[in-house]
Amino acid sequence: MSFLAMAGVLAPATAQPAPSRLGVTPSAQSQDFVAHKQQFQLHSLLTEQRHPRSFDLSTRIAADTTDGLAALLAVDEDIAKALQGVADDPARRAALEAASHDITRALRDGHRLYFYGTGSTGRLAETIESGLWRPFWQRAAASPAMAKIEARFPGLGERVRGEITGGDRALIASLEGFEDIPEIGRLQLQDNGIQRDDLVFAVTEGGETSAVIGTALAAADQAGADARRTWFVYNNPDDVLRPFERSRRVLDDPRIAKIPLPTGPQAITGSTRMQATTTSLYVLGVVLEDATRTLLSEVLTAEELASLGFGESGIADRLRGFAGIQQTVAAAAPKLAAWTDREAAGYAAGHRATYLATRALMPVFVDVTERAPTFRLGPLDPVDTPERRSWIQVWTPAGNAQQAWQALLHRPFHGLDKALYLPPFETGIQDPYLRESALRGLANAGDEQQALYDLSYSDANMRRSGPQAGDSGALILLGDEAHDEANRQWLHAFSSAGADLVLVSVSARPLASEVVRDAAALPRPVPVIAVTVPQRDAFELDQTIALKMLLNAHSTGVMAKRGRVVGNTMTSVQPGNLKLIGRATWLILSHVNAVLETPAWRDAYGRTAPLAYAEANAVLFEAIEQRRNAPGASGLPEVELSVVAVLDALKAGAPIDWNAAASHLRAGGLSRYLAPYATTMRDR
Fold first, then answer.
1. What does pTM read for this prediction?
2. What is the 3-state secondary structure (H, E, C) of 142-166?
3. 596-606, pLDDT tens digit by residue?
4. Nearest 5°: CA angle at 331, between 328 and 332?
């Protein structure tokens, strides 16, 4: 049975009268969403479906952590198959080679590259600039070949810009409403000084994100009839996207070149930070590296290129090589499980975690910040918070906040200037709900936000939020990173405080023996998870991708063990924008209707009419208000609260009782509540 059929609905319903059987009257915002926001009801997308290999993840990982992690990592096999398909398809391979040629030409002619995305693809864009491109040029600066490069192509290291919707502050947490506004894509293009001859890559995992589509269309308009200036990168099939008018505008625009990279459902339903973003990051990294090698071959010898890490493999061979990376990472599941168990147990006991990274800072930071919206966690704590709320913090060896941001971005922090954005927000956003949320977001997007977040391993942070006994600590090493004195000091400080430590290394070579000795010599020996990805590539892309997959599996596993995942659905998701409101509605609908179809429900309560889309959405908006204003619902995820409330009401044949639903949910969580129906809910 397909998941769509199991959920009992194939398309969103039109606006309906008040669902009297549940006692919930649709709010004005709910009526507006159901009647006028069909373009954000995205449950037909392939990336929003449930993956059969991880369908019962929450049950599997509760029983056996290694088995659960293996299920998560096995879904990455879909990426290997998809990339093999691209490598074997002359037309799709030619598109990537054309993109590489365009990049080479743009850089040769002194132009810039602009990568833009929202949420997880925005962090992908910033990773390309600050996690791959700029670190490469910093390493290359010590090479004798650098003088020849600079003489022919001055300032190459400054020619790539990666931008997230909302600017650098959005790296901490997405700004409310921004991704639903096409105009912000045009404004950020202008804000970053992108010119008509620069090359633009607009990246959206779903293929429908308004801000990214706004960027693509604005870049195409800026360039005029030049169809080879703008590239659109996405992870859903064209036929699935065509029902959405905004997607159709890009797909049918001959000025915009397309790179479709569909990989299928995600390991966690709709969590495109996983397979979708991994695919796009790897492909764009390979293309960028291929183009850079071609450019530098005009001035460097083969030996000089090799000294910088450039190999001879072309795009197709690199894509085929992803399978080896995936297999290497998957084999680490047993070692990863011990770390996952330990961190999950620490959170359960009220403890916190600190990750320390230098070269690995960007992938670590991205994984940690993406946990917040996916699993309804507090974002990283600002320095002025009176008490710690975030479960986790990320540090890097730096003296203060500004130095730490420089270590992360390898450039100055870039916020949004209200003078540029405020007038078009106030006058150009017609939807009142979007305008209100966008103005709230803009208030937290400026340059002043840099001072609010301190990622430094410094005396100030040790005093403010240093380790306590029982906390977790993870030292993350990437590539041929030297094990320096700051790492040793951090290990000793956390070990002395009684923290449970782990050392994670992803490198092209086996971990240096002195690192292992240091870890073993501490009062409490430190477990080591060392993954060797043999190929040395110039941008350290292979190692970065391997670390990303490890961290994604680990953090998802931790949250699944903490009850933040039911089956393989993100039932704790925070409905903070239109796409997530649509996803939350679909999760309520699917979980409720799946229960109503089970023999256990029918035996106990008879046949029950399935929940309609409008009913589910009305309940969701009421749950949002309950969570915001009712003490009994405070802190409970809206999706989980809604599922329990609806099923309770249908059992009793009475209106929803939010207090009773909250009590049931607090008593054992959604998984336990649904357990009597679980055996018949599996997708077959």
1. 0.93
2. CCCCHHHHHHHCCCHHHCEEEEECC
3. 999 999 999 99
4. 100
